[in-house]
Predict the structure.
Amino acid sequence: MTDYICPECGEPSEGGLHLDGTPLCPVMGAGGYQAAQPVAVNSLEGQQVRGDLLDAFGADAALDVLRAGASEQNALDEVLGSAPAFGLDRDEIAPIVDGAFRRRLDGYGRRNGR
């Protein structure tokens, strides 16, 4: 795992680029759009980006269940399968993603009387 990530998408970064060599995600700067600056994984901003990413993994899995009719386990397995692309350990993040997934499903059920 690298020590830096893109602050916009959470993907690992080396030398100011995504690991696939593409520039970091665009952000608005003083002169218009420019590549984001990488942030340290262990910084406060880096931890927030990672937290948002894991919450998004849970939301994606919940949407697969709610919209596509996927089984809960298949939906979780699919999103957790993308963890290595983000420099994340699947087993380490699984409980966090599962919690976000359950919160999304519960919220949907309450809004729809389930």
